[in-house]
Design a protein that fits this description.
Number of strands: 10
Strand content: 5-15%
CATH topology of the largest domain: Aminoglycoside 3'-phosphotransferase, Chain: A, domain 2
Structural class: alpha+beta
Number of domains: 2
Strand order of the largest sheet: 1-2-3-5-4
Radius of gyration: 20 Å
Largest sheet: 5 strands, antiparallel
CATH superfamily of the largest domain: Aminoglycoside phosphotransferase (APH), C-terminal lobe
CATH class of the largest domain: Alpha Beta
Order of helices and strands: HEEEHEEEHHHEEEEHHHHHH
Shape: globular
Helix content: 40-55%
Length: about 300
Amino acid sequence: MSNPTNMDLLQQSFERNPEWAGKSYTHEPVPGGLTNFNFKLRIDGVDGEVFAKIPGPGTEAFIDRNAANLAAVQAAEAGISPKVYFLDEQTGVEYSEFIGNEYRTATTLDFQDMDVFGKVMDVYRQWHATPALADTKTMFDMVDEHYDQVKADNIELPAFATEVLANYERAKERYLAAGLTMVPAHNDPMPGNFLLSDDKPVKLLDFEYAANNDVAYELGVLLCEMFVSEENTRLLVERYLGHFDEKFFARVMISRMIADTKWGLWGLINNAVRNEEFDYYKYGAWKLYRTFTISRHPDFETWLEQI
């Protein structure tokens, strides 16, 4: 039997919602998804438009759709994410409120605007104040999982990775000795996962990687992804906390190094297992090398001690 098409999955999942079964609908694709196929639906007799997210092939290996749905519902109830209507557990297709007419998708350039970034800190603070999630996956779980795969598959790392991993182990030791501050974390701060409006608060999308994690890492991975300077990192830490705290700032800076270690290993793993035009080796090696902006910083030892 051939694999079902996206249209098959859409129809099957749609009919399993008892509130929609038997209704007619029209659909159109929504561009921009990296691992999913997205559509906008207009359903006969239903006010407003509906967003349908169809899981991409193979994503079931690393994404728990039920856990992601629970996190999305929790975020929606906190008012920081679109309302979730229905998850079809058989196909993993999730339906939620479409708000693309009121909001636009963020870009990397938007994060050069400190006013926008401040609003992102506000929505993160709201998200982190919600109850703990069912799943926990710390930054160390992520890095160690990747490194175990590197060793198991004999994936060759750049020569300088020895220093990167040694710095990671030092940071891990300090962090675990001091203890983690766990919050419900989003863990996937690509620009497309933020929706912006001129007169409304930022909305947070896509909770496929959500799990309880350390709060400083949640901020650190976002700040390094958006190339935020040390000076602006201080300002954004103050915005998030409501005051400045040197110890928390140090944890965020060290977390930036850990985040680049994680994504660097991820890139090199993907280079070994995927055959695509994207240069995963270049991406992974660059991420690993960028850790030196932290580990070779004059304040690195001080930041480690402050953890």
